[in-house]
Amino acid sequence: MNTVARGPEFMVTRADGVWLWDTSGDRYLDGTASLWYCNVGHGRTEIADAVHRQISTLDAYTVYGDFSNGPAVELSERLAAHAPVADPRVILTSGGGESIETAAKLARRYWAVMGQPERTHLISRTGGYHGLHGFGTSISGMDRFRNGYGRLVEDTSVVPHDSAAALEAEILRVGPERVAAYFAEPVIGSGGVYPPRDDYFTEVARICHKYGVLFIVDSVICGFARMGNWFGIERFGVSPDMVVFAKGVSSGYLPLGGIVVSGRVADPFYNGEGNAFMHGTTYAGHPTACAAAMANLDILEREDLFTVSLEVERHLDVALQGLASHPLVAEVRSGVGVMGGVELTEEALTGRGITTAEVFAEARARGVIVRPIPTSLLVSPPLVITWEQIDHLVSTLSAALDAVAARH
Ligand code: PMP
């Protein structure tokens, strides 16, 4: 905040495909798909048309109680049909963080209804990001998002993201009879782009099953073709108890998120008095947001962005790995999903005082948007990016690194 307050705002006025324009009319390559969400690219008039049609017919109406609407039902059915979850049910929300709150409360409530109210503990991973609401803040794998808010939600802990053995040890330390759920992103996104080891998810799925811990996947970044499939986690051949989604479900044209829940977890709330899950939000099942999502999914399917994205992933991987030999770069993490993390060396960061914010600003001045986190620059372009545009993205980032290196 201290940095951004010093200069004028960067006003984005218009966007089309992978391009953005600012108030001066300068053009920028959107190397981050906004905040990881614009999977189909900007300026899709068919989404605008679908929104216009829906908002002119039924703008919005609550789905409280037995109220419902066509777009909410159709979207839920479509998501359920593709979800890697047994006997899937869908809860709709307005975003990722809201969905995480719902999933965390649902997990705890499930155990209470099942007669095991002591199962409240939530385990998440270092580097994991699950939004910044109450539970999301409390299970964050990054201390900078947790500190300074007093006591957070109790009964949570964080384990190293790359070790299934660490998850099992933590379940045993807490006591399996006290653990409600385990949360993981298929590929850690905001924490720096960390793909899992090959057998990581088969192992953690086995461990969760062994101790009866609910396995909750946060696919907010990884879903809707960014990993070549619907929810990201299919890549690892496991079936979670819940999958949380947002972002790419509507490519961000309107805010939308949700949770796919297995029937086994959902059913108990419908049986018996006093077992209800007393949770919901005003804009759940918003018909116009759902219409935007349906039009977005139509594009993903019609243009087969599920297959295209695997080729984009390969090309982006090869291009980004070319930066691994840059003197400022310690490591390039890429190759699983259309995303990458370029980690700067300790020597560049602490030795020479180079900041990722400086590299970001230099790249933007050269017409390419990347995302700075404390030690890395992240990229996650729209899935419609061409090879030429990928090369432009990576060569501009490389030139920005050179320019910053020359100043220090
Ligand atoms: N989970 C993950 C994996 C995310 O990347 C994000 C957002 N970056 C969220 C949850 C939170 O979503 P929102 O910002 O829509 O609340």
UniProtKB/TrEMBL annotation:
UniProt entry keywords in alphabetical sequence: Aminotransferase, Pyridoxal phosphate, Transferase
Superkingdom of the organism of origin: Bacteria
A family per Pfam: Aminotran_3
GO molecular function, one term: transaminase activity
Family per similarity comment: Belongs to the class-III pyridoxal-phosphate-dependent aminotransferase family.
Name of the protein: Aspartate aminotransferase family protein
Annotated source species: Nocardiopsis codii
